[in-house]
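ligand=D-malate
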Amino acid sequence: MPALSRLPDVSVTVYAYECDAYGHLNESSFLQVFERARWDMLARGPGADLFRRNNVWPAVRKATVDYHLPAFPGDVLDVHTDLVKLGRTSMQLRQRALRSADGNLVAEADLVFVMIDASGNPTAVPEEIATQFGVRVSTRAGEVVRYDVGQVTLSVDVRGDGPALLLIHGFPLDRTLWKHQVATLAGWRRIAPDLRGLGGSDVPASGYTMAAYADDLVRLLDRLRVRKAVVAGLSMGGYIAFELLRRHPERVGGLILCDTKAGPDTEEGRRGRDAMAALAEAKGASAVAEQMLPRMLGRTSLKAQPPLVEQVRELMGRQPVAGIVGALQAMRDRADSKPLLEKIDVPTLIVVGQEDELTPPAEARAMASAIPSAHMTTISGAGHVSPLESPTAVSRVFAEFLEAVRPG
Ligand code: MLT
């Protein structure tokens, strides 16, 4: 069972009285050390009265400890706690104690708690506790969870365990653009949100800017307790990745720029945004889909993959009009990211469909030559939505890059 979310880490010191006649931490004291770490964690976070103020008590139903190395008085142990499973009335936690001095794993505990009420009967895990211990994330393929990120609630597919990979979709699409990568990039925690206004996320009437999209995503990372992620953005998702680099560079550990470009809209392009917004308002999302479809897919896919053509048409046609109009305004008013390129100092992969007409390979090459140490790959037979048109090839180049940048 993969860990579903992370709780704050705490350090505890091993006391002499916890150690046995041979001078090392007694096995029964290990449970106390883990318990101390849990209370410290609560005291530093939501408060040690978290359970009492919710009128429940966490009764331990099961506790097992694996001992790996001895610990001695004065050793400082860094204890990491993961929420492994959140049931209706139960929580499963895993705690890992690493010796601070050398980072070696000393012991691991697996614990199951059942929430009980004043009469000792199992009761549902209160919302506040569930939220403090970590938000539940999808455990089944295709299960999507909604996360409140402040101004809006986003629908997000979170799959797998490992370092975080944030996948930002383009326009007028949603997280399903990345369905193949979410399904296949094992060893990474794949986080694929629907941006505000699109997919299953909230559709505010206004407030669509690159900054708002970027800030929503940072708050999502906060909710998922992710400090740093490799950020992959396709097209508009790339524009948002640039905004993340401008506003929150400390959250970006690596970059995948897929079928995107760095420059702003031209005057003609800006007029085109307004015309498309007017079309969306007058005739709905399906009219936008019809207009965009011939340039979303490459000529090879248009000819050889009729079911995919229909899927992309349907995907664009089901997006909310207010979200489409908002995204068009945000793209129209976006900043020029070209001056940013030479300052990008995280590992960067640039991926482009050879037949991409919206953000053609020439744009990708321009970015690749401006970003120090960027690597570029062209996907043959694919257009603008290469992750859907050539899923295997795109996942393979992503996987190779991710392996090379995996944090140690
Ligand atoms: C996208 O795919 O996100 C858009 O086509 C980008 C754009 O229109 O600039």
